[in-house]
Write a structure and sequence with these properties.
Bound molecules: aspartic acid, magnesium ion
Strand order of the largest sheet: 3-4-2-1-7-9-10-8
Number of helices: 13
CATH class of the largest domain: Alpha Beta
CATH architecture of the largest domain: 3-Layer(aba) Sandwich
Helix content: 40-55%
Number of domains: 2
CATH topology of the largest domain: Carbamate kinase
Length: about 450
């Protein structure tokens, strides 16, 4: 069985939704199709929800009316026959009555989450009826019947798997259509997997049913080796290991929701990234296999703060680092990079909420220096640590770029360097040239 997920832009226009129907039809065997809300919808629902929480009813009503126009037009263009035009209009009027009902009642966090869930519910209903109109047999598979999260907001993979099994055994169609993003929490209330969570849904379903493959269809041809907003030339990466993909997702490669890799990796289900605008493009395959000793990609994360703690008490002492780490633990701030010398330690954090308190407490341990506006540049590859002269290649590519910190050897897949954010663009371009020969 395949799990295929289409994002908001892939279903954002009626002709795109029709094209997706073709695409799904051309895929062999059984598949579960996971859809996001039509592009722009979740943002609009967030705006409506925010207005309602702030008691700004006119603002909310205007947004609802605006969105309704869009949906009426969408439905008009999606369906051909009179009968299905009527079905489309009925769907729109049903959902927008619900929005108005939610807006009129006591609007709290729970209603907000219910409102946010409607985007995926409408898009899947639209798509299902489009398939019906074309006499393509399919079933709607309500995510709220099987997708659950626990009290820590963690998806309950075993439960999801148990619930899906009998459902899948009882259906005999090749296409099952379900909603990304939405779920139920431990109180059985409607909830969600956070923004961009449809990728995560696809991966959870894929892992739960031990799918053959999870396909994430977006509007770019796979993961790229560098940030196309900063370097002129980038190329799609043909294959990545799960570990490499997780590093990249964390370091800001926007293409995937960062948690997506976890369930797929747990059960070794390959994740393929594909482009709806160019189906023939090979895309990126993420699996537990992958060529070694090669630079695969570069990613950068801004907004990093470096903190240096210098203390002669550190010399030959044990337990010093524990004291340093305890300060961060107490303030629930996670450390990304670390580098030490005999008398000093530098760490980086990306969350400055408790910076003042952290610095005050660290001050008791030594002299503190704080550098803001830093960027971590992460160079990713499989078994990079075993590649010959790997640091030499990286450093000679970087030339005269001033490096604040380096971290290497923690994982076999990554070399992280910290530079001042003003150096970032130059560093990414130099690495693109030096490591990938792309100018
Ligand atoms: N519709 C949701 C969002 O925009 C989930 C998703 O598209 O992945 O965040
Ligand atoms: Mg997305």
């Amino acid at each position: 069985m395949l799990v295929v997920k289409f994002g908001g832009t892939s279903v954002g226009k009626p002709e795109r939704m029709k094209k997706i129907a073709e695409l799904v039809l051309s895929m062999p065997g059984k598949k579960i199709v996971v859809l996001s809300a039509l592009s722009g919808t979740t943002n609009a629902l967030v705006r409506i929800g925010d207005h309602l929480l702030a008691q700004q009813h006119t603002g909310a009503q205007n947004e609802i009316a605006e969105l309704e126009k869009h949906y009426l037009q969408f439905s008009k263009e999606l369906y051909s026959s009179e009968a299905y035009q009527a079905i489309g209009q009925e769907i729109v009027s049903r959902y927008f009555s619900l929005f108005r009902l939610l807006a009129a009642g006591k609007f709290d966090d729970r209603s907000y989450r219910e409102l946010l869930a409607q985007g995926e519910l409408v898009s899947t209903e639209f798509f299902y009826h489009h398939l019906q109109e074309r006499k393509i047999s399919s079933r709607l598979l309500p995510a709220l019947h099987f997708m659950t999260i626990d009290e820590n907001h963690e998806p309950e993979l075993e439960k999801i798997s148990e619930r899906l099994k009998p459902i899948l055994e009882s259906v005999n169609v090749d296409i099952l259509v379900t909603q990304g993003y939405i779920c139920r929490n431990q109180n059985n209330e409607i909830d969600n997997l956070k923004r961009g969570g449809s990728d995560y849904t696809a991966s959870l379903i894929g892992a739960a049913i031990r799918a053959e493959e999870i396909q994430i269809w977006t509007d770019i041809d796979g993961m790229h080796n560098n940030d196309p907003r900063i370097v002129k030339k980038t190329m799609p990466i043909a294959e990545l290991t799960f570990d490499e993909a997780s590093e990249l997702a964390y370091f800001g490669a926007k293409i995937l929701h960062p948690s997506t890799i976890v369930p797929a990796q747990k059960y070794g289900v390959p994740v393929r990234l594909k482009n709806t605008m160019d189906e023939k493009a090979p895309g990126t395959i993420i699996s537990d296999k992958g060529s070694k000793h090669q630079f695969k990609a570069i990613a950068a994360k801004d907004g990093i703060i470096a903190i240096n703690i210098k203390s002669s008490r550190m010399l030959l002492a044990y337990g010093f680092l524990r004291k340093v780490f305890e300060v961060f633990e107490k303030h629930k701030t996670s450390i990304d990079m670390i580098s030490t010398s005999e008398v000093a330690v530098s760490v980086t954090i990306d969350d400055s909420t408790r910076l003042t308190e952290i610095v005050a407490e660290l001050g008791k341990l030594g002299t503190i220096e704080v550098d803001k506006n830093q960027t971590i540049i992460c160079i990713v590859g499989n078994a990079l640590a075993e590649k010959e002269a790997v640091l030499q290649e990286v450093f000679s590519a970087l030339g005269a770029i001033k490096i604040r910190m380096v971290s290497f050897g923690g994982s076999h897949n990554n070399i992280s360097i910290l530079v001042d954010t003003t150096q970032k663009d130059k560093a990414l371009n130099l690495l693109n040239e030096g490591l990938f020969n792309l100018k």
